[in-house]
Amino acid sequence: MIPAPHGQPSLLAEDHAPPSLPPAEPPRESVRELEQRYPGLWRAGQLGRAGRLPVCPTGYDALTAELPGGGWPAGAVTELLLTQDGAGELRLLMPALRTLAAGGRRIALVNPPYLPNAGALAGALDDGRLPARQLYWVRPPVAATMASQRTDMLWAAEQMLRSQAFGAVLVWLAGARPEALRRLQVLAQAGDTVVWVLRPMRVLHDSSPAVLRLALSPQPGNLMSIVFHKRRGPVRDTPLLLPLEGMAHVPRRTGVPAVPTPAVPAGIDPIAHDVLDRGTSAAPAAGRAATELA
Amino acid sequence: MAHERVVLANGPAAALGVCYGMRRGGVQALSADVVQLERDPAAETDLVTSVALTLLHFTPAVTIDPEPESATVMLDVTASLRLFGGHRALCRAIRTRVRQLGTFVQIGSGTTAQGAAWLARQPLRKTPRGIVRPARRAVQAPRMVRLLDRLPVSCLQAYTDPDWLEGVGCHTLGQVRQLPRAGLSRRIGTELLARLDQAYGKAPSGFAWFEAPPAFAQRMELPGRIESAEGVLAGAQRLLLALSGWLAAQQAGVTRCVLMLEHERYRLGEDTESTPVPLALAQPSRDPVHLSKLLREKLDKVRFHAPVGGLGLRVETMETCVPQSDSLFPEPGAEPAELGRLLDMLVARLGRDNVLQPQPLPDHRPERANQWCPVGETPTRAPAAGALPPERPLWLLEAPQPLRVERHRPVYQGPLVMLTRPERIEAGWWDGGLATRDYFIAERADGLRCWVYRERPGRPTRDGQEDGGEYRWFLHGLFA
């Protein structure tokens, strides 16, 4: 198992240095002055520095470089769109969850699609698992109807955010309406809980109040393809291919390269200037990335 | 109405000419529209008792005025003023509490209990210039004497005839005080003078303090037949407030109590049982707001098969609970009381079995090892912290899902390729849950990593089917 690259047990890395991306042309003097005066401002071509908002370190250097502020936003909703449940989403979040747990925060799984495996999730922090006392699993009553289960789970997540007793809330909301997400977002803003809302890929074209919206799909060879659909930063059309932690000693399939091919061709400047409107969202990444790999 | 006589009439009725002591027939003669209600002394006593219980929240020194018609509760708040933020804030808090009980209160305060009670009883006066609110509060002794001197003699009607006092030219207490004491006590007895001395603080007064009953079990009638959670909750508010005051007097917090919904008897010819609504808390609490929130979640689940006519609240267990002192630098999220309240709410709405914490068991069979226990149940032993199992998925399927086999390979929405050598798990012959399985980590073409196993042929299978000499494949987990 790859040790998570978190050195200090501090909870939230505040004032993370913005990724050093050289601007293509020097900004004008007035713009630079504005940027200095208002740290919450960022240029369309840059990654947002997220002002002074706290973030939670991701534990993946490649991902950290792509996220505004350099981590998962705390006190905000992050939406993860999944092509497939069980695609590695928990292993993607595990380093962040461990960091939060090491700081004494509690972690809740609300309405996960399968049974969480207690033995693999709960254990000692230093072997890559979470302390059992800080992990909670909330599920809907079995006898209830689908609609009431949905309201129950949304209610549970709202209560958790309201109480601010949890450091991380992972909530699976398949059929939630945008208003429900908006409520979660407003509640999240009042605290410093990191909220991940996991939803199926089919809601991609619905509007979403989440500040960060990523589409996740599995890739052969223990990789995860991440498409950035919404972030405070420049548009990035190519998915990020990220080697997931864990399963280090599981052999790869023959024919799959051991080292991931660089997802971004070197020739393309990662800073797209002033591209704000991207029209329709990119197609789900699974097919495209697979053809790139083939 | 009591004993066929009018005791109290509201404004419109009084405008029609209804007054104290009138007979039922007389009222009927004045107007047929006047609604006559029978006086219920038992309900009045109940109400005063629950007010007294509720006000135990503010001070342990609560006493009910023994005078039958007074309906006055007296509190010694000398020690409570600072805690509740001063005299005005305390009066406001008491007014709000009593308002929540569904009744109104007139508050008078003073340096002596008897004087404060007289001040509290002063009614609003209607004058041509509007409603005049009499001064009812005094904190300093000189102001107290001034206020008392201005009171009309009608407040002494329990001890003597106020008309006689007015007949000798006394209209206020101040004038009564100036009468020669010896003569006055010869004419009308010593009772009046003793009361006056107590009111002016010249003689000590003793009280029979209200004592909270050793066990809390209260019931009340609802004003009507109620069939909704909202209605029951509004009625139960009074019981919860009384409970909170009682708990404050006991320095305790409730951990289990039961609200009984009493149904109308013999409805539709059958005797309907009362419905118990149990309320369990992880941490002792006496916060009426929290208790009311929990009760709302519980009542939302109750099916009302018959209208509710009465409520009963009984405490089953309680624990000592000292209110936490406010900390100078509150730590967000780290407060255990906040977590306890949250978990109570979740458990109340979702049920005990749906708010869980991991408690993995040392067992080779993954479905046995994956144990979660309801929150609050302390684990019997620390979870096995020994060697890590080889490689386990984070998601497990509720029941292993049989997989199709094509060309000797399992298919789960696409053919699976095995990545590892088999991990043989053969356990459970001792408890009837025999598992003989070879587990593999498999990958689908799109990269999904699954945990599959095969049952070896020639063994009795899970559902007793003949396997036909083939391996049977199952999906058991996903490496999420």
Explained architecture:
The complex is a heterodimer of chains A (294) and B (480). Chain A has a single domain, classed as Rossmann fold. Helices cover 24% and strands 19% of the residues of chain A. Chain A is built from 7 helices and 11 strands. In chain A, the strands form 2 sheets. Chain A has an 8-stranded mixed β-sheet, with helices on both faces. In chain A, strand 7, helix 6 and strand 8 form a beta-alpha-beta unit. In chain A, helix 5 runs parallel beside helix 6. Chain A starts with 28 loop residues before the first helix and ends with a helix. The N terminus and C terminus of chain A are likely disordered. Chain B is of the alpha+beta class. Chain B has 4 domains: 39 residues, no CATH class; 139 residues, no CATH class; 120 residues, 2-Layer Sandwich (Dna Ligase, domain 1); 92 residues, no CATH class. In chain B, strands 11, 12, 13, 14, 15, 16 and 17 form a 7-stranded antiparallel β-sheet that branches. A 4-stranded antiparallel β-sheet of chain B has the order 5-8-6-7, with helices on one face. In chain B, strands 1-2 form a two-stranded antiparallel sheet. In chain B, strand 11 and strand 12 form a beta hairpin. In chain B, helix 11 packs antiparallel against helix 12 and helix 12 runs parallel beside helix 13. The longest helix of chain B is centred in the middle third of the chain and has 22 residues. The termini of chain B are far apart. The model of chain B has no long low-confidence stretch (mean pLDDT 81). The interface between A and B is large, with 63 and 54 residues.
